[in-house]
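Posted in: Structural Biology > Protein-Ligand Complexes

Title: Requesting predicted complex, NDP in pocket

I'd be grateful if someone could produce the 3D structure tokens for the following input. Sequence and ligand are given below.
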Amino acid sequence: MFSVINPANETVVAQVPLTSAEATDEAIARSKSVLGAWKDVAPGDRAMLLRRFAAVVRDHAEELAQLEVTNAGHTIGNARWEAGNVANVLEYYAGAPERLFGQQIPVPGGIDITFKEPVGVVGIIVPWNFPMPIAGWGFAPALAAGCTVVLKPAEVTPLTAMRLGELALQAGIPDHVFQVLPGKGSVVGQRFVDNDTVRKVVFTGSTAVGQQVMAGCAKQVKAVTLELGGKSANIIFADADLEKAAATAPYGVFDNAGQDCCARSRILVQASVYDRFMELLEPAVKGVKVGDPSLESTEMGPLITKAQLDTVASFVPDEAAVAFRGDAPTGAGYWFPPTVLTATENDRAYREEIFGPVVTVVPFTDEADAIRMANDSEYGLSGSIWSQNLGRAIRVARGVETGNLSVNSHSSVRYWTPFGGYKKSGLGRELGPDALDAFCETKNVFIATDN
Ligand code: NDP
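-- Reply #1 --
Done. Output follows.
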């Protein structure tokens, strides 16, 4: 049994059984046993079942959101968005089963056609930072493609995923098509990698574990999608709307207490406006409302665990160059205030993913310097560019090696556009129109017509 803790007050909110390696293998076997039947559900019926699943999730959105506030310390506003996102993603991919088109390719002596076939049993490994959306980004397209799914939530945040598993059954998704297996990554997640009945692994989490997952999958030539860490740049040019850039910068990095792979945790500011930007940033950071995540007015909650709090605190030692900080509650809960550091390009806080509410601000000289600094990272997941010169914004967007960029905004992920990283931020893309391909094999069939 695992004690699930509310990170805002350190009380135990549930006891959850941990799935063993043997039970994981049994679940994988059940998943395989229903694969043929699920694949053979008529496209229109599979679409209807996914739409029904979306509707049941929507009917339970408030319950799911409250569960996430309690389990993960997400603000209620964010948690409602996250529950709605699961329903949206299901609805979006409910449009897919009737549109899994193949091609007809001209060949001599016959007809050549391709089919999109489900890749098979899919194992989805979910982290604790966005338990609901990241689960949905995996299971919705997988189910739409005709795959069956075993899903492992993070050990510390299993509650919403377990509820989604129940809601799927309530919506009429057949038994064993979508199974949620709470447990340890080193046990359940490792079986997804090692059990060769699983033909595809979707992993979101740290780059270190992602590398192990990929190496394990390589042994079986098993397909893998990886969404890993980030150290994204928020690039602010002198010709930007500085007031808006400064007012929004805290929300581009401190949302979800900075536990976001897309957090814009390096603010790069053109040197000529650096001092003015810092003057504007200070009240914006001090204005972030940190506290009880169940209150509608709260903008930032606690960190997920004591271990994460200790990791984040290690980036802000006593001698750290703190420019200014916001407030956070004291007492029970894993609280850390929004913190702004001035840094050099060699500082650990500037180079490593912190996954907490800590941001570094560093000046750059010109456009080329900004692109150089943004790219001087092993990661490449997200980022923002602030400039009123559209040509510059486009040039910089094309120059930065990263998967998702926003110009004059810190747009969140949209379910109908692709999401994923360059370099050590990952492999493959989730969401958008192409995500289905990650769950399909392409089968080519030639039919002779000259006999
Ligand atoms: P992990 O990479 O350890 O956890 C992510 C998921 O992988 C969890 O479900 C975990 O299970 C599982 N897992 C762990 N070990 C294995 C394994 N050997 N085989 C298969 N699955 C496994 O991240 P942490 O929770 O340790 O977080 C550490 C750091 O990683 C963070 O500070 C942050 O920098 C980064 N991170 C990035 C995320 C992102 O969205 N890109 C998300 C989460 C973390 P379990 O938790 O049950 O052990």
